[in-house]
Amino acid sequence: MIALTRVSRTFPARTETVAALHEIDLTVAEGEFVAVIGRSGCGKSTLLRLIAGLLEPTSGTITVDGGPVRGPRRDVALMQQQPALLPWRTALGNVLLPVEIARLPRAEGADRARELLDAVGLAGFHHRHPYELSGGMQQRVALCRALIQQPRVLLMDEPFSALDALTREDMAAQLQALHLARPATTVFVTHSIQEAVLLADRVVVLSPRPGRVREVLAVDIPRPRSLGRSAALPAVAECVAHLHDVLAKAGDDGRLS
Fold it and tell me: What's the superkingdom here (predicted)?
C-alpha cells in the first residue's frame, strides 16, 4: 500500500542545508500497522508528511496504492499530536468537517460520525463543544475526524503523547479495536517503545538525524494487546529490550557503535 524508495528530504537553513531523512527504503502492506520510533529530530514527523503529500521528497519516490504521491489524497488521513478542534463546533460538527469539505452526503456522514463517537466512548457527548471535553475526549474526537472518510491509509503523529497514562492506555485499546474492525493501513509515530510494540505488526527504528531505517522488527504477539496486561508478557519485554538497545547503540551519525 505504501512504498518509499531511497527517499531523502533536506531543509534549507541560514548557514547550511539540514538533512532530515536519508535514502529511506520502506514498504507497508495493505492493512498493516507499522510503528515508527527514534530519537527527537530524526525525521519521524517529516516521514509522515511526505507520505501524506504535504511535503515533497528531495530525492527518491513515494507511492500509495501503486500511484505516485503528488499531493494530499482523500484516502490518506493524518492525525496530529494536538486535536486542533474548531471551538465553535460540537464534537459531531468537528468529526463531520472532512465530509463537508469533500462535499459528501451529510446525512450518511452524520450516521458514520455518531457510530465512531459511540465506538470511542463518547455516546452522550455528540453535541458538546471542545471546552466541555477533557483532553482525552478531544483526542478521541480528532481520531473520529481522521476516520470519518474511512481512509485506506491512516498516519498518526504521536497522537497520545499529551495524555495521562490511563487515558493513553484506553486510547490505545480503542485504536486497536477500530483497526481490527476496519484495518486501515496505519503508520504510527511514537516516542514510547512499549506503545510501539503493543500496537504494531512491525516497528521501524530510525537512526538520529539524518533519519535512516536502522532496523525493522516484526512483533509476533497475538491480539488484542493491552498496555496494562500484555506489558508483562516475556515476548513484549524481549521486544522492548531489543528496541531499547538498538536506539541506545545508534551514534549521532546514524551508525551503530
Answer: Bacteria
For 228-248, b/e burial (b = at least 16 CB within 10 A) is: eebeebeebeebbebbeebbe
SS3 256: strand
Q: CA 36, 42, 45 angle in degrees (round to 5)?
A: 60
Which residue type sits at 100?
Answer: E
Q: How is residue 131 annotated by DSSP? A: G
Residue reference for cell 516521514: 47
Q: Using CB atoms within 10 A of its CB, is residue 163 exposed (0-12), middle (13-18) or buried (19+)?
A: middle
Write down the pTM of the prediction. Answer: 0.90
- Work out the number of other CB atoms within 10 angstroms of the CB of residue 69: 23
Burial class (CB in 10 A: 0-12, 13-18, 19+), 49: middle
Distances (CA, A) of 179 to 47, 103, 139, 147: 21, 26, 16, 10
pLDDT single digits (tens) 26-82: 999 999 999 999 998 899 999 999 999 999 999 999 999 999 999 999 899 999 888
Give the amino acid at 119: A
Contact call for residues 139 and 163 (beta carbons, < 8 A): yes
For the chain, domains (ranges, CATH) are: 2-75+151-249 (3.40.50.300), 85-150 (no CATH)
Query: What is d(CA 209, CA 253) in angstroms, rounded to the nearest whole number?
Result: 7
